[in-house]
Amino acid sequence: MEQNEHKSKITLKGILGGDILAHDFLKRQANLIILIAIMTILYIDNRYSCQQELIEIDRLKKELTDIKYDALTISSELTERSRQSKIEEYISTKGASLETAATPPYLIKK
How many CB atoms sit inside 10 A of residue 88's CB? Predict the structure, then answer.
């Protein structure tokens, strides 16, 4: 009876020495403890994956913003270069004999 009583007590020495693994309660609940450990590992893995995806989303948002600003800058430069006055200035510096028409173009209808 004394030996049975000794096995049912959980002490710090028993925990540190590994005797707790032979305890009746842990033997009965081994499947539950394993399930809890697996669920904990899955939870930690899922949380880590979500954090990595959020970091990637933030990086991609920043990259998208940078690309939008670059596209806006390029579009602005293209608009500036394609103005009639800029084109006329460019043509005159190249020495071409082209000039802007004094009369508007005619619309031909059938």
Answer: 13
Where b means 16+ CB within 10 Å and e means fewer, 71-83 reads eeeeeeeeeeeee
Decide: helix, strand or coil at residue 107: coil
Distance in angstroms (rounded) separating the CA atoms of residues 92 and 82: 15
Q: What is the pLDDT along the chain (110 residues), one digit of tens a residue?
A: 444 444 567 788 877 877 777 777 778 888 999 999 999 999 999 999 999 999 999 999 999 999 999 999 999 999 988 888 888 888 888 877 777 778 888 888 87
Instruction: List C-alpha distances in Å: 3 to 9, 18, 26, 38, 92.
Output: 10, 17, 18, 34, 109
C-beta separation of 100 from 88 below 8 A: yes
Q: Determine the Cα–Cα distance for residues 59 and 20; give it in Å rounded to an integer.
A: 48
What is the Cα–Cα distance from 99 to 88, expressed in whole angstroms?
8
